[in-house]
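Severity: low
Component: inverse-folding endpoint
Summary: output formatting inconsistent between runs
Steps to reproduce: submit the following structure tokens with default settings.
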């Protein structure tokens, strides 16, 4: 049975379970499949990545405190996060993947990192 490359359609030579004729075609195919489909998605993902980088940069110890002003000065956008954790004690943590923050009094924030 003749198999063809999923990306370019060329004949595949080699292992029976091969799907691509080369690493280039495999990469091109996967990049096409995994790209953000719209500018809206791309912009949201960029904001999430930026927020994550900011929290990671400030919270190097796994638990720390910072101010709202410091987060804002680095470009943090409080509207974008990946999930919310409500604790039994009533505290609310906002997370970007494994990096999170909790609002404290006087515009302070507790930064935490989840163990994965």
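Observed output (run 2 of 3):
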């Amino acid at each position: 049975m003749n198999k063809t490359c999923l990306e370019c359609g060329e004949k595949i030579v080699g292992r029976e379970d091969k799907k691509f004729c080369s690493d280039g075609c495999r990469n091109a195919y996967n990049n096409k499949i995994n790209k953000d489909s719209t500018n809206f998605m791309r912009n949201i993902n960029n904001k999430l990545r930026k927020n994550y980088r900011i929290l990671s940069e400030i919270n190097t110890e796994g638990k720390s405190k910072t101010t709202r002003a410091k987060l804002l000065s680095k470009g943090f956008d409080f509207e974008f996060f990946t999930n919310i954790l409500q604790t039994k004690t009533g505290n609310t943590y906002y997370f970007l993947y494994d990096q999170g923050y909790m609002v404290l009094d006087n515009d302070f924030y507790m930064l935490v990192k989840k163990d994965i």
